[in-house]
Design a protein that fits this description.
The complex is a heterodimer. Chain A is an all-alpha fold. Chain A has 13 helices and no strands. By secondary structure, chain B is α+β, with helices and mostly antiparallel strands. Classes of the chains: A mainly alpha, B alpha+beta.
Amino acid sequence: MSSSAHTTKFGKIFWPLLAWIVGLMFFFPIFWMVLTSFKTDADAVKPEFLFIFTPTLENYLNMTENYDYWRFAINSVITSVFATAFTLFVGVPAAYAMAFNPSRHTKDILVWMLSTKMLPAAAVLYPMTFLTKNMLGLFDTHFLVIMVLALINLPIVIWMLFTYFKEIPKEIIEAGKMDGVSIWGEMRDIVLPLAWGGLASTALLCFIFCWNEAYWTVRLTTTDAATLSKLIEGNRAPEGLFFGRLSAVSTAAVGPIVVLGWFCQKQLVRGLTFGAVK
Amino acid sequence: MAGLTLRNVAKSYGSTNVITGLDLDIKDSEFVVFVGPSGCGKSTLLRMIAGLEDISGGTISIGDTVVNDVAPAKRGVAMVFQTYALYPHMTVYKNMAFGLKQAKTPADEIDRRVRAAAEILEISSLLDRTPRALSGGQRQRVAIGRAIVREPDVFLFDEPLSNLDAALRVQTRIEIARLHKRLGTTMIYVTHDQVEAMTLADKIVVLRDGNIEQVGSPIELYEKPQNMFVAQFIGSPKMNFFRSEDLSETGNALLKGEADILGIRPEHLRLAGKSKPLLTATPDLIENLGEVALVHCKTARGMEFIAKTTDLSAFPIGKEIKLTADKSMLSFFNSTSQQAV
């Protein structure tokens, strides 16, 4: 007994301490990035100015003047919003069908969909570029970026919605059938209100994934449909080390999504508890 | 209002046959209870009538219409689920009005029917609440209300009392019986509880492994079970079966022809007194329920059975006693066919 009491006392100090250390380790790069964005490029690389320096807004001012931040930002918003909308448009009916009218193959299809996420993106880089650039003429268009973002996120969205829909008791759907509700009515009046929290968190997560996507947005765009990922990429290295400028661009790129997440938090938590049916 | 006719009804999942070639007639305004152990197909049968399960073979008719391919809502049936299955995001009023709204019933008609049903079920004061704010019993009333407002030809109940506590179960059972009297609508009720079956039914359908074992009034099933399964399933505690080794000479003399098993219900066993006993046994345990006691006895060869009595002093533990029963209360079975003789 005494040993377990000892462990508890030790654990009370040790585990929170460890959690704090790990947490701070993860947070530090972000903190450093934000800090660096307020330094001049010259100061940014000097270790003695790590915490103590003369802050400047120069990087941010340059960003809007020289790099047309808003164009990239608007592209990011357009592609993420439409990609999320399209993903839900396809994903909701798909997940509905699999949750409420499963066939013998539903499980296999779900696993297969997830397996597409295991394919390394680099493996299809050349065919994708060739196809979109030389054959379809879709390279650097909003349409292409939207479709690519939507399709790479579709599996995970269907999986999430499937799990949320599964939580709705089958009897409630059957009660709807007894009441004579149409498929569309069932969706609108029963399924979506009950899975609202799940739907909202899925949409938010999908939006975040779209916003943060870099591999394809960087490679399939040049200027017209270029997103914030491309802007960050464009500020990387070739002319030398411009850490201050790069940090400012990065901060401005992740800023909106962090703020969005922050605002949605309360909404999401409320939505999730509402989903608890019984 | 309508009766139901089931002809050669079958249900299979792949190669597994759940129900095979079942025939049943249910008269208009009858209260029919499907009863049987779990897995006997009673819920599946109810769901087939409701239209929630496909029918693999045969026909189901409600009134004169074959409804095999008719959508659930168009069959003129309403169902009350075991888990209530209320729409959690709608108020009680909206829950009850939802079906009528789907049928494009005029708003004032919906209002009239919902309020009338709420009146019957005494839930008028709850109409603005959501199911979350209701107790289990209240939720069950709303579920019944949702069925009533649709004014169906047939009510379907799928173990509606299973989720209620014991006291509420008895009360709700009585209310369902009253409701049937008041509305006079055909009701089909599924349960595994034989007490519910006995108290509610005009007609009990005993099911086992997808087959009908017996159809009859509660008293018919109790007094004249057609086979050993029904004999043991109806009545609590279940009927005792005695083989010739357990019986006295007098008892053995009663086993004639094909009959080799004597069935006696616990409540019919009594001390033989001066008359010739049917069997002798030794009481070894007593469960006193207050108004009656269940006496667990053993015959000479160790067969266990139960006698139900109000006079405990007649059953001293560990002492041999002689038992008998009225001849009119005896049942006879054949051990090979399991059927009544």
